[in-house]
Design brief:
single chain, Rossmann fold, 15 helices, binds zinc ion
Length: 511
């Protein structure tokens, strides 16, 4: 007797929606892969779906691909776009004939027009198609929001367990193994959660660092050690801590622990509560471990440092959090103080167009930044020399957030990632290099290297990020400083008006 052949539907869907973003649905791009392309793209890759495929293939399961629709980090997703791709995915499942299970790679923080929990609605629709007896197992980003609708619709929800994220492949494998165990009648998963009155302080919630001494200092790393210990209990099938995505401003964008046990709801609850208590107790430590430094002070520290690189993190303009990437506050301060040997990335399609029109070596007078989001900062007028022009396509070969961690500097080929930030120009202004791109700027060394800058050789590097840069920059940075800039991903939420979150809530209210 060979294995029973299970037919597993797989799909990928999601976005990280920052509702404070000015980005309108007409500017949103969606990455789409359909049918077989979904498989060929991921086969052998260190992605969530790559993990699904590795386990399913080994077992001899039949894979039924649907689609991948991914909007990335942006604002509220347009209704038409959401509805269209949701129905495409559902249609493919309906046409698939009899399937035994569904594996999904979601983000979890997608907000669409009239659909504040867009991926929850997708899960509900899938549940309605496949019926109650079919397991639906999904992997979410830990910045996903674990809503009641998602919990009611899915059989099991797993999150990545690293921040910056480097375990997508492992979590994909775990989800696929779990669905096979369910289908073979080996386990009966029950999920229980502990939801905290907390907007997860993402900056201080790193789970790892390249430096073992820094890792030991991280409060969330300690909690994740306990998570690994609890998971050794035989009946605990999985345990994840979701930081949540506060900037999606929905009632359930809160830090949530999800425990999955084999037929033991009380045990699942006990374990979720134990980790939930630890996270709640550590809440002030998360805030304190990476304090926000005022812009003037941060630039002063960077300029007076004996050696670089000093990485200044423009936290309120996080490229990976739906921010526009055109915040000029740090640039202004650098120019005002006459800083040299600094690199500032900005998203500015107009400046790119002007640079391309005049060509390399030419001088231009141009306003940079501050054109997309006009509420928090303004454009800066500079006289610049165009140093490099480039099409914006590059390959991330070093460790990166959303990828895979290794000890060396270069990742194995199957973990490389091709990125396109749109046309890009390198401008030089009085010893400061400004990289202007049409799209959202990169958060890893490879982006800077792509325009000819070796970040390890510069004194001051600006990155637009919360966590992502750490996967790439931690090993070369002499110091990383989180700068208290204004904008739509501000960790102090300055200038952001929440409408839908429950109050009181940490850290906004005394609690
Ligand atoms: Zn994330």
């Amino acid at each position: 007797m060979g294995n029973i052949v299970f037919r597993i539907g797989i799909g990928s869907f999601g976005a990280e929606s920052n509702v404070f973003s000015v980005e309108s649905p007409v500017d949103q791009l969606v990455e789409v892969l359909e049918g077989h392309d979904l498989l060929t793209f991921n086969l052998g890759k260190k992605t969530v779906i790559g993990g699904f495929l590795e386990v399913l293939q080994k077992f001899g399961a039949e894979v039924v691909p649907t689609i991948r629709a991914y909007w990335g980090t942006t604002g509220i997703i347009g209704k038409e776009s959401f509805e269209h791709y949701k129905s495409e995915l559902c249609k493919k499942l309906r046409q698939a004939g009899k399937i035994d299970g569904v594996l999904l790679d979601l983000h979890g923080a997608m907000v669409a027009e009239d659909a504040s929990d867009a991926e929850g609605i997708l899960l509900r629709d899938i549940r309605n198609i496949v019926g109650d007896g079919i397991p639906i197992v999904c992997v979410l980003d830990p910045h996903g929001n674990v809503t009641d609708l998602k919990l009611q619709s899915a059989t099991a929800i797993l999150g990545y367990r690293s921040n910056p994220h480097i375990d997508l492949f492992d979590r994909g494998k775990k989800a696929a193994s779990l669905i096979l165990k369910i289908l073979r009648g080996k386990v009966r998963p029950v999920m229980r959660i502990r939801r905290l009155q907390m907007l997860g302080p993402n900056l201080g919630m790193s789970t790892w660092s390249y430096s073992p001494s820094e890792t030991r200092r991280l409060p969330f790393a300690k909690i994740m050690e306990e998570v690994s210990k609890l998971e050794k209990i035989k009946e605990i099938l999985d345990l994840s801590v979701f930081i949540g995505f506060p900037y999606s401003d929905i009632p359930e964008c809160l830090t949530t622990v999800v425990a999955i046990a084999d037929d033991k709801p009380d045990l699942a609850q006990k374990v979720a509560d134990k980790i939930g208590d630890m996270v709640w107790k550590a809440r002030n430590k998360f805030l304190k471990i990476r304090p926000l430094i005022p812009v003037e002070k941060a630039v002063e520290i960077a300029m007076s440092a004996k050696e670089g690189p000093i990485v200044l993190v423009d936290v309120a303009d996080n490229s990976g959090g739906g921010a526009p990437c055109d915040n000029t506050v740090i640039l202004e301060e650098l120019l005002k103080r006459g800083a040299k040997d600094a690199v500032v990335p900005l998203r500015d399609p107009e400046a790119v167009r002007i640079a391309f029109a005049v060509g390399v070596g030419k001088e231009i007078e141009v306003e940079v930044g501050g054109k997309i989001d006009k509420r928090f900062y303004k454009p800066v007028k500079v006289k610049a020399k165009v140093k490099t022009l480039f099409d914006g396509k590059y390959v991330i070969r070093g460790p990166y957030h959303g990828g895979f961690k290794i000890k060396g500097n270069i990742l194995p080929r199957e973990a490389w990632k091709v990125v396109d930030v749109g046309k890009t120009a390198l401008l030089e202004v009085d010893g400061i290099e400004i990289i202007v791109s049409e799209g959202r700027v990169g958060m890893e060394q490879d982006y800077y290297k792509a325009v000819g800058i070796d970040p390890s050789q510069r004194k001051i590097i600006i990155v637009k990020s919360h966590q992502a840069h750490r996967a790439s920059f931690e090993r070369i940075a002499k110091r990383i400083i989180e700068v208290d800039t204004p904008g739509v991903t501000s960790p102090s939420y300055k200038g952001l008006t929440f409408k839908n979150i429950p109050r009181p809530i940490f850290p906004l209210d005394p609690i």
